[in-house]
């Protein structure tokens, strides 16, 4: 990357935001998945110190209110807009997008952070497996519906951004199983495999979105690192995280692993959203707040797979994604 602040494993979200305060000022940003003790909350909290508007989302209105209050208590001047969003439901996604599209302000940055991680097999109302629906198909539809809002923020010197919070798990397994995506089968379901597939899909979507928009939108994906968040306290997740040695029998983080703090974990998201050095690197993958395309697995970066995933996802949502 070109000259500018050097970031590392220990860089915090506040440090990144301070470095790019001029890029954040005046911007309207939407962050999905902002419940307390989450990466999304930390991302929104830090951005809210400088941005014109931060839209926070969650499927539970009461928890969303707690996040709003926590940010406003720390940053009284913050302009926070809470948006109820259920990414596992096409109807829920459409309702939330319509609410944002009805407002006058453009949208400069969309951060697709929310995820249903390591959940038990369950079909959504639309007949999809919950993890792939919430982590990939829902964000794809949400991004598609908000694209006019994003394009409205473009200027001769600014290109709107879409950020997909992926994971190092994008490199695991063999990538997206299109049969599982279109025809979910509980007999073949694995929480870990579905998680890795969803995270691979995030990277592929960022690549294809950047390509198809032809310079109108810059999209990025990232691995935030290992962070002990509210995901680690969910009943569905604990057995998986214990099986891979991340969480002990006491439910606490296992010592000796390369854990990041919540603020260190959110740093890469803030960098992906605002670092001007990324302007000429659409579709890039970041880790430790720095471009790390070399860490992308072939199945998470293959252009043919990215194009196929885009077409299949358009078929699932029943409409074309146009710019």
TrEMBL record:
Database matches in InterPro entries: NAD(P)-bd_dom_sf, SDR_fam
Entry keywords, A to Z: Oxidoreductase
Annotated coiled-coil segments of the chain: none
Pfam families (UniProt xref): adh_short
Keyword Oxidoreductase in annotation: yes
Signal peptide extent: none
MF GO annotations: oxidoreductase activity
Family: Belongs to the short-chain dehydrogenases/reductases (SDR) family.
Protein's name according to its UniProt entry: Uncharacterized protein
Taxon lineage: Eukaryota, Fungi, Dikarya, Basidiomycota, Agaricomycotina
């Amino acid at each position: 990357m070109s000259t500018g602040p050097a970031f590392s494993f220990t860089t915090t979200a506040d440090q990144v935001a301070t470095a790019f305060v001029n890029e954040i000022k005046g911007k309207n940003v939407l962050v999905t998945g902002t419940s307390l003790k989450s990466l999304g909350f930390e991302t929104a909290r830090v951005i809210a110190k400088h941005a014109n508007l931060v839209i926070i989302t969650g499927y539970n209105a009461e928890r969303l209110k707690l996040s709003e209050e926590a940010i406003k208590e720390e940053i009284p001047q913050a302009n926070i807009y809470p948006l109820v969003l259920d990414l596992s439901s096409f109807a829920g996604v459409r309702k939330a997008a319509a609410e944002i599209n009805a407002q006058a302000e453009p949208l400069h940055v969309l951060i697709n952070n929310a995820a249903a991680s390591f959940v038990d097999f369950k079909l959504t109302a639309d007949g999809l497996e919950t993890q792939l629906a919430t982590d990939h198909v829902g964000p794809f539809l949400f991004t598609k519906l908000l694209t006019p809002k994003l394009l409205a923020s473009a200027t001769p010197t600014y290109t709107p951004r879409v950020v997909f919070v992926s994971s190092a798990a994008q490199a695991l397994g063999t990538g997206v199983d299109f049969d599982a995506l279109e025809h979910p089968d509980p007999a073949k379901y694995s929480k870990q495999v579905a998680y890795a597939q969803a995270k691979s899909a995030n990277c592929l979507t960022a690549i294809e979105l950047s390509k198809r928009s032809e310079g109108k939108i810059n999209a990025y994906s990232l691995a935030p690192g290992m962070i002990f968040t509210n995901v680690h306290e969910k009943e569905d997740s604990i057995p998986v995280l214990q099986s891979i040695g991340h969480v002990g029998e006491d439910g606490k983080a296992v010592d000796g692993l390369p854990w990041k703090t919540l603020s260190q974990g959110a740093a890469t998201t803030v960098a992906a959203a605002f670092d001007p050095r990324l302007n000429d690197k659409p579709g890039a993958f970041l880790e430790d707040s720095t471009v790390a395309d070399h860490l992308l697995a072939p199945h998470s970066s293959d252009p043919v797979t990215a194009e196929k995933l885009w077409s299949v996802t358009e078929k699932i949502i029943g409409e074309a994604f146009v710019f």
